[in-house]
Design a protein that fits this description.
The complex is a heterodimer. Chain A has 7 helices and 5 strands, in the order αααααββαββαβ. Chain A has helices spanning about 5, 15-40, 45, 55-60, 65-90, 110-125, 155-175, and strands at about 100, 110, 130-140, 145-150, 185-190. In chain B, the strands form 2 sheets. A 3-stranded mixed beta sheet of chain B has the order 3-4-5, covered by helices on one side. Classes of the chains: A alpha+beta, B alpha+beta. Chain A: Keywords: Membrane, Transmembrane, Transmembrane helix.
Amino acid sequence: MKPPSRAALARSYRVERVFTVLVGLAALLLGAAALVVGAGWLGTFRAARPVLDPIAVDTLRAWELPARIAAVVLGLLALVAGVLLAVRTLRRERHPDLALDRTAGKRLLVTSGAIAEAIAADAERVAGVSRAKATVVGDAATPALRLSLWLRYGARVKDVWQEVDTAVLRRARESLGVETMPTAVRIELGAQEKQRVR
Amino acid sequence: MRVLVRILTLLLGLALAGVGALLAVEVAWTWARPVQGPLLVPWPQWRDRLAELTWQSGSVRLVAAAVAVAGLLLLLFAATARRKDVALLDPGPGITVRTSPRSLARIVGARVRAEENVAAASVTATPKRVRVRAVSGLETEAHLRPRLLDVVAATLADLPLTRKPKVSVVVDSPKDRS
């Protein structure tokens, strides 16, 4: 299990990558197997057989009912899996709001945008930081912070880092009243000053 | 490449859903009304065509090769879709700090170009290795190279990197050619 601060670094692409690898592997193996059969390496007799083998067709005919049920179930499973996968890739990354008080009647919710803006504005005040962007990621039970910092050229990373940890993040934790806030910091070094178009 | 893998997953997911739906619908339709013929896909024609083709026929081999190549490409895309962040030391528990290889290359490049007698420099950086290629019109490689190695090492030492990348410096100078 990855620590939450590491998981907050970037949106996870594990499911997408694993799926792409599985499809790629299946396509590669099937294509290679068909080529091997066609080249006659598994016997010249087999290579001359039709692709839709009469033996296979006869077997399917003999087991007609189970084959039909299996085909329908397989089709429905593929439909559900494909739709779930497509929905997953299209879903936006979650930015949970923080519930500071859950007691009925006086619920207090801080929206993810408000937290992010406050922390980013605070981080931009640190010497050497030219731009900062914060986002709240993860789920509502275990929210985490992703903080991107663009440092000016010549800024000392160790100093910036120290101040972000002791000042910015501590203030954020205190004002939100949480003990810990898993944080992923992405640093861009030697960034150009932001040019405003007038 | 990460976006590409996401788009590919979307397309493959939609294709899987479509093929699954067609399979279920066609099988159920033929089961319920065996005499009326196919509903959406002309599968009896496909079946007859597949029964004619043998594994040796050119079109079968062509399709098999295309499928294998497509699979190889998918594997390649998936393999290149990983992040290549440079890890920095964590300042405290529960905090993870990363930077990009491009950042590393940018600051090393700026420091190298600021050195005397360096006309141009290009830097490529990965978490494991920093490669510098400098052009100098006035100094030979034997003179400039040790100095540049020191500069790059000092620049990297300033950063709280978890692992020091290996540094390689190449100087391209016309003085070495004469």
